[in-house]
Amino acid sequence: MISVNNIQVIFGKGTPLQKQALNGVSLTIEQGSFVTVIGSNGAGKSTLLGVLAGDVLPSEGQVMIGKTDVSRKGTAARAGLVARVFQDPLTGSCGALSIEENLALAAKRGEARGLAAALGPKRREHFRERIAELNLGLENRMGDRMDLLSGGQRQAVSLVMATLAGSEVLLLDEHTAALDPGMAEFVMNLTQKIVSERKLTTMMVTHSMRQALDYGHRTIMLHGGEIVLDVAGDSRKELQVEDLIAMFRRIRGQTLDDDALLIG
Amino acid sequence: MSLIAFWGAVELGLVYAFVAVGVFLAFRVLDFPDLTVDGSFPLGAAVTAVLIIAGVNPWLAACVAMVAGAAAGIVTAMLNVRFKILNLLASILTMIALFSVNLRVMGKPNVALINADTMLSPFYGLGLRDFYVRPLFIGVLVVIAVIVVWRFLESDAGLAMRATGANARMARAQGVDTNRQIYLGMAISNALVAFGGALFAQTNGFADVTSGVGTIVVGLAAVIIGETLLGARGILIALIGCVLGSILYRIAIQLALSTDMLGLQASDLNFVTAALVTFALVLPRLRRGGAA
Questions:
Q1: Residue B45 lies in a domain
Q2: In a domain, B233, yes or no
Q3: Neighbours of A166 (CB within 10 A)
Q4: d(Cα B292, Cα B279) in Å, to the nearest integer?
Q5: Fewest Cβ atoms closer than 10 Å to its Cβ: which of A102, A198, A219, B193?
């Protein structure tokens, strides 16, 4: 479960470039719920994700993940509670390490790391099985360096990495935005499968309104650092991409020049 | 080149293999350009020499040298992590400060260890000639060090350190405290370099405050020569490359200096080193058909 209470985030406080990135955001996401988050550039979606991940510490407000108050905890300190897939495939995994070394690193997320060999026979076999489930043929390339993989393959492996160690929440940061349409669909289907199989509490930030409505149980729209839309259940089922765009226009009080950007 | 000169070069190469492995940890694993080694190498030599003269067991003296080296590494790490000083500059500051520290430790610029007991003393009387005993003894220590560092880098803790250097953001997301890894890595790296300094003092019979000048270039030369020869094929190969590179570097220098035809003298050493490192850097490009 995630519980965020009256969060304030201000970037560049006291400078001419001061920006209120999040303004009093409160949000509760129940255990096992899959929430999608949309909003235009600068709306605060990445900041909200950063607040949950620990990259951004709010100046005010409380962040609870599970039963733990993580308001003042940095990324590494709360990693045991948070699994994450980044937008850039290069960020989420380590190019200089092999596939199985990346998995070994992720399998110990949030745990103490000792001097035992990272890749014993048992762990190797376990990793191999998990990667074989992807049906990408990567199980025969476990010793290959991660940077030999395509962006889509890396995102698929990142998703597996996110589920190797237990976590309270899964954070997805536009994790298909850098992929070609075919691979994006593959990764989204994989995401869906993993999230529903493991009943993960998930928050997915996306640029695509289509994705935001097609996946998950609930959709949130951010604008100017505030939550301006929060739909779930039947009212969400009836919602169309066009409705969202109309809403966007109303909120911004201006016409959008490039709808394609939002539908994408 | 005489037999003695050859084995002398191998011996020196093995001593500097500790420097090479230390430099590999800082530069390649942690991606931290660390010049502290120019100070921590003579620091290791100074601490060992002073302690041995004070009657301390030479093995213990070498261990204390490692602790001193680790402390130097931690100072550099602190300047970088806690005070946000650029990594290269942080290491230069420590290096400069260590010059004074080393003079204080020794009380004078040069301490001789003639006739003092060293780690090697028990092995001299066993029938092998001295110029074989030294490289053999140091070689065994190098093998032990390489195995320990290799096992470490392939452990869970070692993976965390490698991830810190390769992708710090990802490492943090996996729960790795990257600042702590920098402290730890710099400590291990400089402890190894200081141990090299301790061995240098014990095999050469002196510690000199200027013996650290250019240590970083020599260490880097070894790392690069090793990479050029063996390529990037895993941690163990890379570590063996460091050792091999260090030995080959010394042999190449010895060859260059002992070949009358080239007309080089000992004072040309720095130029030859620079030329050799440049060559090792350019060679991989030339191999790829001159495409730059």
A1: yes
A2: no
A3: 12
A4: 15
A5: A198
For chain B, the domain total comes to 1
* Average pLDDT, consecutive stretches of 10 residues, N- to C-terminus, chain B (292 residues): 90 97 96 96 97 96 98 98 96 97 96 89 85 94 98 96 96 96 98 98 94 91 90 91 96 83 79 80 70 44
Q: Do B167 and A114 touch (CB under 8 A)?
A: no
The reported pLDDT for the residue numbered B274 is 82
User: Do A161 and A86 meet the contact criterion of CB atoms below 8 Å apart?
Assistant: no
- Flag whether residue B174 sits within 8 Å of chain A, measured between CB atoms: yes
B19 within domain boundaries: yes
User: Residues of B with CB below 8 A from A113's CB?
Assistant: 155-157, 159-160, 176
Judged by a CB distance cut-off of 8 A, whether residue B108 touches chain A is no
B102 vs B105: CA distance, rounded Å: 5
Residue B282 falls inside a structural domain: no
Q: What is the pTM of this model?
A: 0.90
Q: Containing domain of residue B185, as a range?
A: 11-210
**Does the distance separating the beta carbons of B174 and A109 come in below 8 Å?**
yes
* Residue A116 forms contact with B (CB below 8 Å): yes
Strands A218-223 vs A226-232: parallel, antiparallel or unpaired = antiparallel
Backbone angles phi, psi at B79, to 5 degrees: -60, -35
Those residues with Cβ within 8 angstroms of residue B288's Cβ, 6 or more apart along the chain or in another chain: none
Q: What are phi and psi of A171, to 5 degrees?
A: -110, 125
Instruction: Count other Cβ atoms within 10 Å, centred on residue B12.
Output: 24
Q: Which residue of B has its CA nearest to A100?
A: B159
Of B155, B169, B175, the CB nearest to A80: B175
Mutation target to probe the B interface, by most B beta carbons within 10 A, among A56, A88, A99, A105 is A105
CA distance A113 to chain B (A): 5
Q: A241: Cβ–Cβ under 8 A, 6 or more apart, which residues?
A: A209, A210, A213, A263
Contacts of A144 (CB under 8 A, 6+ apart): A98, A99
